């Protein structure tokens, strides 16, 4: 499930980023750049896409990089979670976009709340660290001026 917005960094051209909520028991989320998004159409379709992309590579080095990138490396301990995520994603293909949005809404609410808390915590920590640093540096300047 994805939502998007454009992000502009300095003078660079705005880049589209997607907020992706992943399927599986260990639900997770991430901001993913537009270029890294591959529409999900099943594991078999992904495998075909990966093979076609590797086959189109022009150099041996590109082929090796793409082969490494597209390998499905799932550790034994994560295999059950991965299979669950694939089942959930396959089931979502059968649903309308409205139904998928309704089902994912609780996760989105959870993650947006979590992001707000994390951002607030970061702001508080930066503020505290900055003010602590400012006090230390002003004290040391005072000492050096008094000597």
Would you give an account of this structure?
The chain has 4 helices and 3 strands; from the N terminus they run βββαααα. It has 147 residues and is an alpha+beta fold. Among the domains are: 1-37; 41-94, no CATH class. A hairpin with a 7-residue loop joins strand 1 and strand 2. The longest helix is centred in the C-terminal third of the chain and has 50 residues, at 97-146.
Strand adjacency order, main sheet = 1-2-3
Form type? globular
Radius of gyration: 23 Å
Largest sheet: 3 strands, antiparallel
| Uncertain stretches | 129-147
Question: Whole-Å distance between the termini?
Answer: 63 Å
- Helix residue percentage: 55-70%
- N-to-C SSE series? EEEHHHH
Task: Please state roughly what percent of the residues sit in beta strands, choosing from under 5%, 5-15%, 15-25%, 25-35%, 35-45% or over 45%.
Answer: 5-15%
| Strand tally | 3
Total helices: the number is: 4
> Which structural class is indicated by helix and strand composition?
alpha+beta
Return the average pLDDT rounded to an integer: 75
List keywords for this structure.
alpha+beta, 4 helices, disordered C terminus, three-stranded antiparallel β-sheet, 147 residues
Summarize the structure.
The protein is an alpha+beta fold. Among the domains are: 1-37; 41-94, no CATH class. 63% of the residues lie in helices and 12% in strands.
What's the structural blueprint in terms of helices and strands?
Blueprint: E1 2-7, E2 15-21, E3 29-33, H1 43-56, H2 60-70, H3 76-93, H4 97-146
Antiparallel strand pairs: 1-2, 2-3
Helix pairs in contact: 1-2
């Amino acid at each position: 499930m994805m939502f998007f917005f454009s992000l502009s960094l300095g003078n660079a051209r705005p880049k589209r980023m997607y907020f992706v909520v992943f399927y599986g028991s260990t639900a997770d989320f991430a901001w993913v750049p537009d270029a890294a998004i591959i529409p999900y159409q099943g594991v078999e379709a992904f495998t075909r896409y990966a093979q076609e992309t590797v086959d189109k590579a022009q150099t041996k080095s590109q082929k090796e990089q793409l082969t490494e990138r597209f390998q499905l490396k799932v550790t034994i301990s994560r295999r059950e979670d991965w299979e669950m995520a694939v089942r959930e994603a396959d089931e979502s293909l059968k649903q309308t976009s409205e139904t998928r949005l309704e089902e994912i809404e609780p996760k989105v609410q959870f993650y947006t709340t979590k992001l707000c808390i994390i951002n607030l915590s970061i702001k508080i920590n930066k503020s505290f660290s900055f003010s602590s640093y400012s006090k230390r540096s002003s004290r040391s300047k005072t000492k050096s001026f008094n000597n």
